Amino acid sequence: MSTSRPIRTCVGCRRTDERSALRRYVRADRGLVLDEACRAPGRGAWVHPDRECWTRALRGGFARSFRAPVNPDAVDRTPFGR
Fold first, then answer.
1. Within 10 A of 1 (CB to CB), how many other CB atoms are there?
2. Alpha helices of 14-78 — where are they, by DSSP H?
3. What is the pTM of this model?
4. Are the C-beta atoms of 43 and 66 separated by less than 8 Å?
5. Quick one: what percent of the chain has pLDDT higher than 90?
6. Per DSSP, what are the bridge partners of residue 2?
7. What pLDDT shows up at residue 40?
8. Structural domain boundaries of the chain?
9. Which one of 3.30.1230.10, 3.40.190.10, 3.30.70.1560, 1.10.540.10 gives the CATH number of domain 7-66?
10. Given a cut of 70, is residue 1 above it in pLDDT?
11. Which secondary-structure segment (H or E) carries 9?
12. Dihedral, CA atoms, 7, 79, 57, 71, nearest 10 degrees?
């Protein structure tokens, strides 16, 4: 019997990885919010916790995932701290 782990795609680099290796963001009234518990309602976007993926996600990955523009200044916090 095999055990499978949830696989997600990073919106920055578009590589797949285990859910535990990525951070989930959701769109809220105040901007992008880090969903640490991975239980917030609505569409989520997953990103690796590194600067290169984060930069790519802000340049277009989040907007593509949420199908709406994303303001880079309206981010709760980055996945690797400020």
1. 2
2. 51-56, 62-66
3. 0.90
4. yes
5. 79
6. none
7. 94
8. 7-66
9. 3.30.1230.10
10. no
11. strand 7-9
12. 130
